[in-house]
Design goal:
Length: about 200
């Protein structure tokens, strides 16, 4: 059985609503909206994940299966996945993944920790937004909203924000938000590696 990483006594926040977007748990019924965002972001996501996902022949039905797995993990407290939507919930703008701290490092063979207070960090957070939203700096707005949300509504002591080591834009917004690089990892499976940023 997978280990839970969120305090068992604490309620998992159900949503986040800002002036420009909202977050809620990702469901299999979001398959079509999510699929449209994936296809629009295919090149970005392949670079971000350092993989061939999503494949050229990826389908809405396959996406629904993946989203059902995310929803089940969310319900079980194994990991939490939130879809980022416009305020009318008619368009998917991106996605937020909240996982045990060492994810995605569970498959990475080489890593280096810079912070002595690593035990205080309980979760690793990754996110992406559609390329069409970058002109509006949605990624920066999302990061700032997430930082506030984790501080005010979640029961984690602290979280890392993960980013691929070659994702210059995301590294820039992390640093502009006052986050510091405290972790780096590399592996043949992820040739560019990952950086972990925290307060």
């Amino acid at each position: 059985m997978a280990m839970l990483f969120y305090p068992a006594h604490a309620a998992v926040p159900e949503s986040l609503v800002t002036e420009h977007f909202c977050l809620r748990p990702l469901q299999a019924t979001d398959a079509s909206l999510d699929f449209a965002a994936l296809i629009d972001s295919r090149t970005l996501l392949r670079a971000w994940s350092q993989s061939t996902w999503p494949a050229d022949d990826f389908t809405v039905a396959e996406n629904a299966v993946e989203l059902a797995k995310h929803a089940e993990e969310h319900q079980q407290g194994i990991a939490f996945t939130f879809t980022v939507l416009d305020l009318q919930e008619s368009c998917c703008l991106g996605c937020v993944y909240i996982n045990p701290l060492m994810y995605p490092l569970n498959t990475l063979s080489q890593h280096k920790l810079f912070c002595s207070d690593a035990q205080d960090y309980q979760a690793g957070v990754t996110f992406w937004v559609r390329p069409s939203c970058l002109e509006m700096d949605l990624d920066r707005s999302l990061l700032l909203a997430l930082m506030s949300w984790f501080k005010q509504a979640w029961s984690f002591t602290a979280v890392f924000f993960w980013t691929p080591a070659h994702h210059i834009r995301q590294i820039h917004i992390f640093e502009m938000a006052g986050l510091m690089k405290k972790f780096e990892a590399a592996t043949p499976e992820a040739p560019y590696g990952w950086y972990g940023y925290g307060v």
